[in-house]
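[step 3/7] fold_predict: job queued, chain A
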Amino acid sequence: MKLAYLVNTYPQPSHSFIRREVQALERMEWQIHRFALRSNRAALVDAADLAEETRTEHILKQGLGPLLRQALPFALRRPAATWRSLRLALACGARGAGGPAGTGGRLRHLIYWLEGAYLAARCHALRLPHIHAHFGTNSATVAMLAAELGGLRFSMTVHGPEEFDAPHAHNLAEKTARAAFTVAISSFGRGQLCRWADLAHWRRIYVVHCGIEPWRFPAPAPLPQTPPKLVAIGRLTEQKGIPLLIEAMALVARQRRDLHLTLIGDGPFRSLLEAQIARAGLQQQITLTGWLDEAGVRDHLAQAHALVLPSFAEGLPMVVMEAFAAGRPVIASAINGVPELVTADTGWLVPSGDPQALATALLTFAATPPERLQAMGLAARDRVLARHDIQTEAEKLTELFASGGRA
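[step 4/7] structure written:
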């Protein structure tokens, strides 16, 4: 009933789904020790994230000296396992995960090996027999090396799209073969893992959704009695497609100027987006709020008629789940796992990268009668509560942890 959870950087404002998963497991009496390679303390504002920070052991925060003092004596007591884990690290590094193939990749993987040796030593000290890594990138590499060195089990949850953009560089096939089990957060994700995994390992690839806490979403607020209002939520980065959304809003404005969009989030694209909005003369139609905590996001969802997600790359977006739980339909790009959530009775799917198609969907939404929008929102809520209750999804993980992947 004891586990290690490992994430590259944790907690993060965008990783509240991991916190919910860990806390759901703890409610079922699992003892979870949180590890992260890095801290992002300066970016944390939400009280729940700040509390989670204090519960997390950050490996690189220890400094090189403490890492070596924990890792090397542990490794020296296990020469055969140390040799196997070093060979594994160098082989993975030769394939170039996290850097170019050859010397650079091997050097990086030697650093991962040191982190893994420290993690293995800590897991032995804390009597943690199993490491579960979130994301199939460097955190899963460290977990795999720790398991090899320490005689531990490891598993991983793969989210995408990053892992699927470079499956060979991230050694997905190797990790899937060695893991006790691998979790995908969508059927699309499982299909991508099956592309790279040996057929013999498909049976140990499971779908466990990210989840919401239904009790945080009481009965949906009535739709506002205002002209149509949209909200978009997420980091202002290239993969979120917000410039395309602004282009679509400019097309919509030729026919109706009463559609309003609120952009919630911050990031490197903010100044670029502000300039684009000004050039298009859309300052009255588009509002940027900056980052908001979970309560602020829920308030804005309650004040909107629908969520819009114009992304170019996603896993299975939490913002769609939260909009559905709030009783709001969604307009979204038809990519990756999104069509598993958004259906014809809960929203509109549009081709990714097509501003005209997105503008058409926005106009269709704006012309939809309020009673139809309300019915779509209620159908969306029913769908997400049935498919994404965090307690139900955590129970699936419990069965996998308890059985070692033989659910």
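[step 5/7] annotate
The longest strand covers residues 2-9.
The chain is about 45% helix and 15% strand.
exit 0
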